[in-house]
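re: ur question from the group chat, yeah i did fold both. here u go
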Amino acid sequence: MIKGLEAFLEWGGTKREIVLLVLSGAALLVSIFLPDVLPVDPAWLAIVLCGVPILLEAFIGLVTAFDIKADVLVSIALIASVLIGEIFAAGEVAFIMQLGALLEDLTVARARAGIEKLVRLTPRTARVVTEAGERTVPAEEVRVGDLVRVLPGETIPVDGVIRTGQTSVNQAVMTGESLPVDKGPGDQVSSGTVNQFGSFDMEASRVGEDSTFQRLVRLVQSADAGKAKIVGLADRWATWVVVAALTAAIITFLITGEIIRSVTILVVFCPCALVLATPTAVMAAIGNATRHGFLVREGDALERLASVRRVAFDKTGTLTSGMPQVTAVEPLAADFDGSTLYTLAAGAELRSEHPLGKAVVNGFRAGGGEVPPAEKFTMLPGLGVEAVVSGHRVTAGNLSLMARNGIAAEHGEQAAARYLDQGCTVIYLAVDGVLAGLVALADTLRTDAARMIAEIRAQGAEPVLLTGDNRNAARHIAGQLGITEIKAGCLPQDKLDYMDRCREEKQPVCMVGDGVNDAPALKRAWVSIAMGGMGSDIAVDAADIALVSDDLGELPHLMALSKRMMLTIRCNLAFSMGLNFLAVALAIGGALNPVAGALVHNAGSVLVIVSSALLLGWRSRKRGSLSTKTENSDI
């Protein structure tokens, strides 16, 4: 029987609720303006269509879990109103209660609409190329190592590496960047992004549930406001309100002997606005966060974020781009200037597979240079490369390679020390057997990182740098950002210990990180944020919030949003409780009848929902985004 009742309540969802509300609203209008047109009061239709679901919810809750919540008090108020002949009041209470529930559902649906778009974008099929030809298969059947063909306009079905073809990819779903990114052989592409112009063949590297896009889907499915501690608090209050309302109604009847006053108390004491105050605000705030690139995995994460006093940042991949970039080219010989050395270095590294070599070539091309061809290229694992470029024998690598070739590099070590202290990696460059210069590379800061740090401090939270770098390198980065508290040389256990110390000191801390080594600290922190785009799976799973776009420029907005959400919740709770007690006082004094009481009370519920819905479009003052591109002014 219970299951049958539950099935009835779930039938049709929002559409059923709208139909019932329209019919009930029409019946109430007829009851007001044409009360004698029918042999029975038309308000009975509102009682049946809107009141019966409330009665069933209350009955199921009591029978299955002895759950005494708002619907129990509403049910008692409905029954009491009918018993004393206040049919219109009963219909009105039922109608406005269901209207409030519908508005809550629509608020939640609108809040989640931006997230659910990601799920609808899930690639369905893939073109797998084999020796027998091309065949279309479900995307989940693609295996690692399969060759997948993607045509213009198609969504990339799995993560992989382009093997042949040139194209431009729209990565907005992952990064928020509207401009397409040029891709070619050797470039990584992610599932869920859209191939715009050219066709290409790619080798699948991460498929099925391991793909980047499916990681986002899992985050979406875990976004839930139901776990918020403050929601539970509101539910507990609602239970006591039910007890208080019944007590007040009984005492009033015993003193005055007027049953209508007791019924009015039951009507106005219904804790609808109290129950709606928190979940609608939380879900609206989650929807707002989603629009700014955040996926909130835990409902109470925003509540906890509002109270943080410190924000601890990992360095690599969080405050920095996560990829090495050329920061300086320094000549050490009079025969070569910086531009010439950069050209020779790019030519020597053109065929290199090493990340530093690729960074040199990419940086040179980004500056508009044309990489000269190289001859007699030799890659020496663990040392560097050798090649003939523009008629010069170029040797690029570390000090061990210089020593192996008998190249004096003592003066180069002195010049390199300055860059090494700043956390840079140095490539020594010898031309025709003589040390000619060096190339310094570093994981560069995101362009507006300093402004983001300043905005966080302005909101009352102190930024902290947690890094595995040596202290000199950490001080250099912290100095650029204006961070005064530094923890250098951190291993995962050191970061975990820092979280524990903050807990002991009653200093709520937010941890922001991206790597596997950050996962323990992310899990232990008061609240944590992982870089969802470039962060590791383990880091994302350990965090409460994932930043999909990797744009930390939105972090100050998220912190301000969390504070705004808590302010909205407190105002909602204070307003709903104040309105309830005022209406009860008027009801006890006989100033309100059940009809007027229903209007006053349920109008408060609607105002609470509207107040929460405003969070969806709320925006803190405009901030610039954090780019990963930097100006290499030293080159």
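okk and heres the other one u asked abt
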Amino acid sequence: MNKDIYNFKRFYLLIVLLFCLSVKVKAQQKVKDMEADIVIYGGTSAAVMAAVQATKMGKSVVVVSPDKHLGGLSSSGLGFTDTGNKQVIGGLAREFYHRVYLHYDQDTAWKWQQKSDYGNVGQGTPAIDGKDRTMWIFEPHVAEAIMEAFVKEHQIKVYRDEWLNRETGVEKKAGKIVSITTLSRKKFKGKVFIDATYEGDLMAAAKVSYHVGRESNATYNEQWNGVQTEVFQHAHHFTELVDPYVIKGDKSSGLLEGISATHPGVKGAGDHKLQAYCFRMCLTDNPENRVEFPKPDFYNPKAYELLVRVFEKGWKELFNKYDPVPNRKTDTNNHGPFSTDYIGENYDYPEACYARRKEINKAHENYQKGLLYFMAKDPRIPSDLQKKINTWGLAKDEFKDNGNWPHQLYIREARRMVSDYVMTEHDVLGKKVVPHSIGMGSYSLDSHHIQRYVTEAGFVQNEGDIGVKAPQPYSIAYYAIIPKKTECENLLVPVCLSVSHIAYGSIRMEPVFMILGESAATAASLAIDSKLPVQDVDYKLLKHLLLQQKQHLTLTD
């Protein structure tokens, strides 16, 4: 009898287990295949704006995001917005900055600082513009909250921490993407796809042409592309003669860390190197909200010997890019000949596998945390500067699930599509009329340094930094965000668009990505309605809709 009961219990438990497994399998099967009119890959500000606009156009949309946090750099430390001329920022991008204004118009938003004590300093414009009710400077968590509010209001489906299978995850038929599959085996089917990543992973996996690195000046008849030795347009080069060797004056002792032994290349020649990445740090000098700079997981003091030599030459500009954001915080960026940019350590990032990218990301984190720790602790740092830097720390109320460190590495440039129209410095500098505008940019041609080398005279120098002012706002061509028709008929690429290295230095600003994300979704919707490839969308109708959305397309709009 007892044996029968025992066997019955075993049989019952087996049935329950099989039932649970079948439910789980069915649930997984339901999750694996999802379908929407527009599938957006990425979690950047462009991705969010594209998703919002798709829903406003009456389309079903799904966002497949490798990121857990939405908003890209806008919500990961870049709060001192690179506005350029704010008058050409319209549509949903302006709505974002309007919502920033509404947030800080509340007394409750000013927890660590009185609004009256805030300096109202922006980049080329006041931080707060009461006349048009916009605000251009903000804390990271505020930007993220606004992005999440957009998603909630428009009931946008977002699948987070979902990474495209870059090897076999893009299914194409007859020149169109049919579906994308992530590493977790979720499949997303759509009519039109938008790659809104900083890396252009979907674009590349779809076998669309692209370029990595600098083109030669000869490629597009440019002046500011390619290698730019002895060109100094920002304060980020060595103004004093600094010895590059471990033992000063002794070549046989080897080079200090961070200096390349390779010749920088012929001026104007192309290469496959990239402008440096960094994290845009949110720091504070408020003791109540300050976390002491932590020692990184891997700390290498030798990596900062060159900085000591910079200080020995009397350099005092350490705090020049502690740009203020509300509540006694900063958006701290690279500044000077040796700073937060990890020059030369990102060249393989665009094409790297996910594991290698994770290593590069961690190396940048260790370098930048180590830099802060070194300046705070090492006795060779000038005492006045060390005393001041120890009044700063990470903001305790930012990035709380990541040790107060930004979630997103600043991928200033990775892949760039090569399509039928390539934006170049001629477009940005107003030397030609840009056809079929879908938005405008206005920032300078801006590239950070790309390499650190030894000059023929035997001293260390940086190369690659460019800052050439655009004389006026310029249009961005529709054909720069769509691939060649022979390569893919239903993909739009508003972030890694078709543009030369140096022109991308102007276009790569967060407000512009938001503008292009919105425009891409509008074009995608038209392509669906007309049952046409994105290359054949009626531009007159697209222009009409973009103007209705209060986008700015030309200086006369």
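fwiw on the second one: Confidence is low (pLDDT under 50) at residues 23-30. The CA atoms of residues 442 and 473 lie 4 Å apart. idk if thats what u expected
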